[in-house]
Amino acid sequence: MIKGPKDSFKFIIGSQYFLYFGIMGISLPYFNLYCYHLDFTGFQIGLLSAFRTVMIVLFPLFWGALADHFQIRRPIYILCNFVSTGIWAFYLYFTDFWLMLVITVLYGIFYAPIISFLEAFTMDVLGKEKKSYGKIRAWGSISFIVIVIVIGSIIDIFSIEIIIAVILAGSLLQAFISFRIPDVVISKKESFTPKTKVLLKRRVAVFLFCAFLMLVSHGTYYAFFSIHLDSLGYGKTFIGFAWAMASIAEILVMINSDKIFKRFSLENVLVFSFMIATLRWLILFFVKSPVLILISQIFHAITYGAFHIASILYIDLLTPDEAKTLGQAANNAVTYGLGMTVGFLFNGYLYESVGLFNLFIISSLIALSGGVIFKLGTRTK
After folding, report:
1. How far apart are CA 82 and CA 79, in angstroms?
2. Which helix (H) or strand (E) holds 200?
3. How far apart are the first and last CA of the chain?
4. How large is the C-alpha radius of gyration of the chain?
5. Residue 39, exposed/middle/buried by CB under 10 A (0-12, 13-18, 19+)?
6. Coil, strand, or helix at residue 95?
7. Confidence class for position 9, pLDDT limits 50, 70, 90
8. Domains of the chain, start order
9. What does the alpha-carbon distance between residue 89 and residue 69 come to, in Å, rounded to a whole number?
10. Which of 81-85, 137-141, 265-269, 278-282 has the lowest mean pLDDT?
11. Own/partner pairs for 156-162, CB < 8 Å, 24+ apart?
């Protein structure tokens, strides 16, 4: 239960999404490109990306279990914001691959649980209004759009090295605002341990496995899309605009999430998302046209926007109150953690030998597999 005015807490939660995804609007499109301009190999870039996501596999589960067991979600959230910000500052001083790898690991330990904790806070704040989750989450996408366009233009004028300092400033601001996050009080009716067993149930296991495949299929996109466009001769402004187009489309889904999920079941939205992902990666395999590339970015509304919201609601539906933080942490760990780790390593390993275009068709087949398995696996419950 949340103590305090709900509207005020919605604003605070929205500001956290705004900052979190604004920072992502810099790091996701440009950090790997920054490494590329440091002359790191495709495998080294894939390895750095993989280690970032390995931390998302391991540590949200640890922090989530700790938070739920002792009911200290808020203190841990604040701690992780400040410590991860401090560790990020070391990127200002080191450009050696191995030192950056060490910084990446240490940073990931504390950065990893932030988004899953934020999702759990949001579900608690919304209460019976959970299907309107997208309206709060849309602030993150709006921020992503603005930042990704602005920073792309700034990089074209100045240098890509500027992203490290800007991310540090944004992270510090988010850390200070995290003090305003609401506290949650849960009346325990049963012990924590039996509730965690829900994560082993067939319905949850099928979903997590298929969601894992969905994020593996996004590995090429998240690790090498900017590099792909750069190699095709497009400038940083176009790269930023391409990422922004995806977020613009995503926002349309998020602000209408309550209408969408009143009309369509969570399972149907998830299956549809897999099918659109299959089509999206096929397009990037076949085309080089700037217009068609931007059109393919519109599908992000489904492959990320609809899929993400449906995933958050689906795992919230399947987990009890006493294990909500762990449930969101498990979802985040298996998808954006393990799925992205495998996707980054897999794509980094194959980058030199098969080329980017072929990586996109492999991604298409992986997304298709996830959709088929989920459809068959949830046919009977």
Report:
1. 5
2. none
3. 30
4. 20
5. exposed
6. coil
7. confident
8. 6-182+192-377 (1.20.1250.20)
9. 32
10. 137-141
11. 156/235, 156/236, 156/237, 160/30, 160/33, 160/34, 160/37, 160/236, 161/34
